[in-house]
Amino acid sequence: MSFSLTGRLFFLLAPTVLAASAAAQDVIGSFPDVQVPVENPLTPEKVRLGQALFFEEQLSSDDTMACATCHQPEAGGGDPRAGRRSPGVDGRMLTPDDEFGSPGMRLQDAQQDFTAHPAFGFGVQATARNSPTVLAAAFFNTQFWDTRALPTFRDLAGNVVILEYGSLETQAVEPVLSAAEMGHVGRTWDEVVAKLERVRPLDLALRVPPALEQFLDGTTSYAPLFRKAFGTGAITRERVAMAIASYERTLIPDQAPFDLGTMTPRQAFGFQVFRVRGTCVICHSPNDKLFTDGARRTISLPEHGRAVKTPTLRNVGLRKRYMSSGQFTSLDEVLAHYEGIGFIGFRNAFERVALIDFLQNALTDPRAAARSGPFERPTLRSEVSGTDARLFGAGTLGSLAHVPAMLADSPPVLGSRSFRIGLGEALGGTSAFLSIGPNATPSGTSFQGIPIYVEAAPSQALAFVTSGAGAGAGSVTYHADLPNDPALAGLEIFAQWFVLDPGAAGGVSSSRGAEFELFSRSFRPKARR
Fold first, then answer.
1. Are 141 and 14 spatial neighbours (Cβ–Cβ below 8 Å)?
2. CATH for 44-250?
3. Residue 396's beta-bridge partner residues?
4. Among residues 318, 324, 352, 350, which one has the least CA distance to residue 336?
5. Quick one: which of 335, 24, 294 has its CA closest to 133?
6. Are residues 99 and 129 in contact, defined by beta-carbon separation less than 8 angstroms?
7. CATH entry 2.20.130 includes domain 385-517
8. Counting Cβ atoms within 10 Å, is residue 320 exposed (0-12), middle (13-18) or buried (19+)?
9. pLDDT in tens, 201-249
10. How far apart are CA 402 and CA 289, in angstroms?
11. Which of 26, 90, 98, 97 is nearest to 309 (CA)?
12. 503: Cβ–Cβ under 8 A, 6 or more apart, which residues?
């Protein structure tokens, strides 16, 4: 491609090709100073409460997901696990319009029982979009790729809580109820509030930063923390949103080499390439230092031609996936796309290398990568090996070669009222038994060819009837409240499912074994390989 011809033509046409649309003023504040709504002034207590809630896995219905699970500073404010495939508009997997989002939760019905998803079965669901960055999100007057979270924040009755600049609050209340992200089908805010009223703050987290630990001050419920932040201990949907938004308004990555005047010569040359070799600055103007105007545009992505909000380029070098679809895995692929549609061209290979260096490094705040400064954070339970079930052994085949699946995601934290052990991919409408006890069998133990992983005594055998109909469609969920007894910390529990199935050898199919180790915030299980 000759940039002298094609690139100039696209530069002239780009204001039309990239026609912007938005439902509200796109960018607010003046980087690095954020615009704070008058109805939700920033206070240190509110920020700390918001930080606790942002990293609170117990905010999800099964204790497996926090806001931070999909939004981590060292991943550029996105998801370090990004790239789980989900179906696009056609509703089918492995087709060109597939999305690459974040792993979420297994689908759970209104009773919080595991149920099959049309695309994911009993597996973990994936979000339909690549998670946008939370770093510098405070400068956008709308949130989500489609900008549906607007600046007027309302309560459930439709009353205005924040008139303007409240898009962070509007956004914060959606994932908590989403059956793919943090909730179950039909989850309500009454359920969320009731759970926050009884759980110990950050009971699942490790390595809580000292300032946050000091704010928690050993409290055993969230009400005292809400009292610190809001004056009373009442926990409400609106206060949860205000606290999380307050924390997010502190996540300002303003110490990149571009800000400090420490760019290398190659990065400085890459910045010149950024400004003059294509149409980058139309959408990602450096004049506001945010490197975006926040407007919705389409950039001719193959099979993903929707208009989405233009993201900031800050910390883009830390991202694991790119574009709302997540279909690109490197900045090299991103530039190749823009070259292919004529939005940028290079005179030589060095210009391209320099531009990638500028994007990759000169716009990255090193504090984000190091989890320091405003990006200091706890470690999530889900990030640490060995804190949920260890699956072992092999299951046995049932009808149509389906092996019953052990669904063991819930962390066995003492005092939990969200603990569950599920069965999936079994024969529907038949009897199933959960064997659960404190001892595993010796390796190689079996009965009539079926491997047995839990000692018969003193284990229990709990009887259920599987839901669903047909081979592979059956499921069961065992719910339990775990005792809040520190003396039980470190106790191991073993479990295995058995399913009566005429299509199985011997008439019984079985799951893998699962090993749980009860723990509390003061006692952590040993990490397993």
1. no
2. 1.10.760.10
3. 510
4. 352
5. 294
6. yes
7. yes
8. buried
9. 999 999 999 999 999 999 999 999 999 999 999 999 999 999 999 999 9
10. 55
11. 26
12. 398, 399, 400, 427, 471, 509
Nearest to 349 by CA among 279, 270, 276: 270
Amino acid, res. 283: C
Contacts of 300 (CB under 8 A, 6+ apart): 341
Pairwise CA distance, residues 180 & 114, whole Å: 12
In CATH, 3-25+254-369 is 1.10.760.10: yes
- Tens-digit pLDDT profile for residues 272-312: 999 999 999 999 999 999 999 999 999 999 999 899 999 99
Structure tokens at 172: 């914060």
**Phi (first) and psi of residue 266, to 5 degrees:** -70, -40
Q: Could you give the C-alpha distances from 525 to 116, 385, 407, 436, 439, in angstroms and in order?
A: 31, 9, 20, 19, 17
Domain with CATH 1.10.760.10 in the chain: 3-25+254-369, 44-250
Q: Where in the chain is the domain with CATH 2.20.130?
A: 385-517
